[in-house]
Design brief:
mainly alpha; 13 helices
């Protein structure tokens, strides 16, 4: 195995591990809602915990040395894009169900491909375009299914927030790639997440300290699905391309859907399951082609 192949498979492993950990977002968020927390409050505590972890990580490893100008730019990005991403995904989970929200999030590969082409002149091969087309078709079918809550309800707000979360999530790929050679993963996410937490602090509600299930779910969101998963994702982007990382990350909605079905009895209609299968197919297509 040559060096390039080793880098690809190592980056792929990091990305897939991050996707599996991210799959806990939907069921953990629903547990927090059940504990009486609002979507915005859950989003604040999630990102605040992660920012503290990243900042401690960067300081302990002596990686935290940003210039004031660069820190201001990174924090501005976090204050806008990261905060909107966290808020929209939490609202979508509440309104349309965890499985639905996570799959809508994965309109991100299309945005990543566009941003990569515009900002980095990254080539879009025929196989990549085909894989993304399959993913987008699957997403459209999932939207047509309405929700995964099993109640027959259709929430335009949930769908809009799910699609918006995909856009803001997609922005994080080119932004990270732009800065990754200058600053560590922990520094980048520590600064951007802390800025998002400051912006979202006005939405903060009390911690569910007396609710063991809710507090445990919140710790999973903040430490595992935000700190650990984003750290792995950052490592993957140093080894594979943005588009590869975005499409490989489609494993997340598969795992999230299964977890939501198992823990919360969420389900799709037939057309929704077809959409899920197409999303999975786009992941397999990219991996086999590579």
């Amino acid at each position: 195995m040559n060096v390039n192949d080793a880098r690809f498979w190592k980056g792929t492993l990091y990305c897939l591990l991050a996707a599996l950990v991210w799959a806990s977002i939907a069921p953990a968020s629903r547990a927090c809602f059940e504990a009486g927390m609002s979507p915005t409050s859950v989003g604040f505590w999630r990102i605040a915990m992660a920012s503290v972890c990243f900042l401690i990580h960067a300081v302990v490893r002596r990686e935290f040395k940003p210039s004031l100008r660069d820190a201001a730019v990174i924090m501005f990005f976090g204050a806008v894009s990261v905060s909107l991403f966290v808020i929209t995904i939490q609202i979508s989970i509440q309104k349309s169900g965890g499985a639905m929200a996570i799959i809508l999030l994965f309109t991100a590969p299309a945005w990543v491909a566009l941003f990569s082409r515009l900002f980095f002149k990254e080539q879009l091969t025929g196989s990549r375009l085909f894989a993304m087309a399959i993913a987008m078709l699957g997403t459209a079918l999932v939207c047509a299914a309405g929700s995964s809550l099993g109640t027959g309800e259709f929430s335009w707000l949930g769908i809009f927030c799910g699609l918006a979360s995909g856009f803001f999530y997609g922005l994080q790929f080119p932004f990270f790639v732009w800065w990754k050679d200058k600053y560590s993963t922990a520094t980048l996410f520590g600064l951007s997440f802390s800025a998002a937490a400051i912006v979202m602090s006005g939405f903060a509600g009390p911690l569910p300290l007396e609710n063991v299930k809710g507090m445990s779910a919140l710790l999973i969101l903040g430490i595992l699905s935000s700190y650990l998963a984003y750290f792995l994702y950052g490592l993957s982007l140093r080894l594979i391309s943005q588009v590869q990382a975005a499409i490989l990350g489609n494993l997340e909605p598969v795992a999230a859907t299964l977890l939501s079905w198992w823990l919360w009895d969420e389900n799709f209609s037939f057309i929704g399951w077809v959409g899920c299968a197409l999303v999975i197919g786009s992941v397999l297509l990219l991996t086999v082609k590579r």
